[in-house]
């Protein structure tokens, strides 16, 4: 059966993967309300397309932190990709590079920063969890910098791991043939079996709950790389992030895997964008499955989006070719959405091209 959209990879991944692995990638926290809402909220935003504009040439290129990319669609950090496919992060890195876009490597990757760098050229960011042992953090950041990574995406929404009930039921742990490659030499690469989720126990033991804004400033003393703060959902925190020296903000609810009943990222986006007043770029991850979703995020002020689950599901289904196809399908859909909305470049996508449920009634069509 021919795959015609990104979501179709989900069912194939579910068929192919062991239940423990599929559930780890697919599930959200607790009631999974936010998991559903990340998708549903996109469906409540409608288009106001402009017609009779020459859309014979469409330019989707953009720059992120000064790096030119082919489209505003990037790869979010997702952990332990070799559980999905033997090539894991290698395949994802090659696919992102071929698409001319950015890959973010997870701290908890099953391939190291050096291994991913060895796949060839490409613009890559490194997602960072701050461990209790700050020497480990320093070492990791230096390794990422040395391996040519261009930015640090600091995850700030995980002082503790969210309650993911399928991981508890499945007694989730990293399969014994794999390690968290970046920590292999530090005796932090293995995850023990636990009475609940092995990952939750690992986080409780290793990740620093005292993490605060002063650590964002500390991070800037150990690296010259720009820091993106990943996990901002309010205007208040967006303002503090800028004061703390963040080079950019990623509006993220961690794929709905942390605190349930936070809003969908697309619903939180505009508040964050307004708070930044254009001082730093704002990105979004969470729930993007269509080119129309990408357009909606940009119309609400995002400079680009990141995709997570679509990458691991496609990786499970078809390896590198699957990830390439996901990026290509989203690109093609986004280009079509731009054309049908009357936008020839990203700068032409405006707030007036969409209508949301929170807009004033003058925007709404009379029923």
Automatic annotation (TrEMBL):
Q: Keyword set for this entry?
A: Oxidoreductase, Peroxisome
Cofactor(s) needed, names only, are:
FMN
Q: What is its main location?
A: other
**Start and end residues of each FMN hydroxy acid dehydrogenase domain:** 1-359
Hydrolase among keywords: no
Q: What is its EC number?
A: 1.1.3.15
List, alphabetically, the InterPro entries matched: Aldolase_TIM (IPR013785), Alpha-hydoxy_acid_DH_FMN (IPR012133), FMN-dep_DH (IPR000262), FMN_HAD (IPR037396), FMN_hydac_DH_AS (IPR008259)
State whether keyword Oxidoreductase applies: yes
Q: Where in the cell is it found?
A: Peroxisome
User: Tell me, what's a Pfam family for it?
Assistant: FMN_dh
- Name the PANTHER family on file: GLYCOLATE OXIDASE 2, S -2-HYDROXY-ACID OXIDASE-RELATED
Per UniProt, subunit arrangement is: Homotetramer.
For this chain, the family text in UniProt reads:
Belongs to the FMN-dependent alpha-hydroxy acid dehydrogenase family.
Q: What is this protein called?
A: (S)-2-hydroxy-acid oxidase
According to its UniProt entry, this protein's organism is Camelina sativa
Show the taxonomic lineage. Answer: Eukaryota, Viridiplantae, Streptophyta, Embryophyta, Tracheophyta
Name of encoding gene:
LOC104745717
């Amino acid at each position: 059966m021919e795959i015609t959209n990104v979501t179709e990879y989900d069912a194939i991944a579910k068929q192919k993967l062991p239940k423990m692995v599929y559930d780890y990638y697919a599930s959200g926290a607790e009631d999974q309300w936010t998991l559903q809402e990340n998708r549903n909220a996109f469906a409540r935003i409608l288009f106001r397309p402009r017609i009779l504009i020459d859309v014979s040439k469409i330019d989707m290129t953009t720059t992120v932190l000064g790096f030119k990319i082919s489209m505003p669609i990037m790869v979010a950090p997702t952990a332990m990709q070799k559980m999905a496919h033997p090539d894991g992060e290698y395949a994802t890195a090659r696919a992102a590079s071929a698409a001319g876009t950015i890959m973010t490597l997870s701290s908890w990757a099953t391939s190291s920063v050096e291994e991913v760098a060895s796949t060839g050229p490409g613009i890559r960011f490194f997602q960072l969890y701050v461990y209790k042992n700050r020497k480990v953090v320093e070492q990791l950041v230096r390794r990422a910098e040395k391996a040519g990574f261009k930015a640090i995406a600091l995850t700030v929404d995980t002082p503790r791991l969210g309650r993911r009930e399928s991981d508890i039921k499945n007694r989730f742990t990293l399969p014994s043939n794999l390690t968290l490659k970046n920590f292999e030499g530090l005796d932090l690469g293995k995850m023990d079996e636990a009475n609940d989720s092995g990952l939750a126990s690992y986080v409780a033991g290793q990740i620093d709950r005292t993490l605060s804004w002063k650590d964002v400033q500390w991070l800037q003393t150990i690296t010259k790389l720009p820091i993106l703060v990943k996990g901002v959902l309010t205007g208040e925190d967006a303002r503090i992030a800028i004061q703390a020296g963040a080079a950019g903000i990623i509006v993220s609810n961690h794929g709905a895997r942390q605190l349930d009943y936070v809003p969908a990222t697309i619903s939180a986006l505009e508040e964050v964008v307004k708070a930044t007043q254009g001082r730093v770029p704002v990105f979004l991850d969470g729930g993007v499955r269509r080119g129309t979703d990408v357009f909606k995020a940009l119309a609400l002020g995002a400079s680009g989006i990141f995709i997570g689950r679509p990458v691991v599901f496609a990786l499970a289904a078809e390896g590198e070719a699957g990830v390439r196809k996901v990026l290509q399908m989203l690109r093609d859909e986004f280009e079509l959405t731009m054309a049908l909305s009357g936008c020839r470049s990203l700068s032409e996508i405006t707030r007036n091209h969409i209508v949301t449920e929170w807009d004033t009634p003058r925007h709404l069509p009379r029923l």
